[in-house]
Specification:
Largest sheet: none
Mean pLDDT: 90
Structural class: mainly alpha
Low-confidence stretches: none
Helix content: over 70%
Strand content: under 5%
Number of strands: 0
Number of domains: 1
Radius of gyration: 23 Å
Shape: rod-shaped
Length: 167
């Protein structure tokens, strides 16, 4: 009787541990998805601000054309080419802002302030996303998650090259 009780307790404990571990992994995957959605929204907003800057008097015609092309490419890029497109937009914005343009108009100052705030928010969002991905990858490497296939069919989360760019 005592062995039956001990075996039942052990089986219940193992089932509880597996259920707890699967729930934890599910929360980590949800964290990765929400951090990516937040980052993606900020990147889309940055592309929109870049288009507004390209239409303003802040940019000369050549810079405006370059910035417009980079912003449209970043907004419409598929996941495979997203890193390259975001890096291109960062480079185009960097060229424009480091050219030493003088800002006279209120609208231009407002756009540059918004871009600066967005850049700070993007840096934070990138660090949160990279942290979420790293934690999820570490948990998925544990043997219990592999043996019992607790991740199910969820893809392994990844980071993108543009996340290491200096914005």
């Amino acid at each position: 009787m005592e062995q039956y009780f001990l075996g039942s307790f052990l089986a219940i404990f193992v089932l509880w541990y597996l259920s707890y571990s699967a729930t934890r992994l599910d929360r980590l995957h949800h964290r990765v998805e929400t951090s990516w959605a937040n980052l993606d929204g900020l990147l889309q907003r940055r592309a929109a601000v870049a288009l507004e800057i390209a239409k303003s008097e802040l940019a000369d015609p050549a810079s405006s054309l370059l910035l417009t092309a980079a912003a449209h490419q970043a907004r419409d890029a598929q996941m495979q080419s997203r890193s390259q497109a975001e890096s291109g937009l960062s480079g185009a914005l960097g060229l424009l802002l480091n050219d030493g343009h003088l800002v006279d108009g209120f609208i231009e100052k407002d756009l540059l302030r918004e871009l600066s705030e967005l850049t700070d928010k993007i840096r934070v969002a990138i660090s949160l996303h990279v942290d979420a991905v790293t934690r999820t990858q570490m948990v998925r490497q544990k043997p219990v998650f592999k043996i019992f296939r607790l991740a199910g069919t969820a893809p392994l989360p990844v980071t993108y090259e543009f996340e290491t760019d200096v914005l």
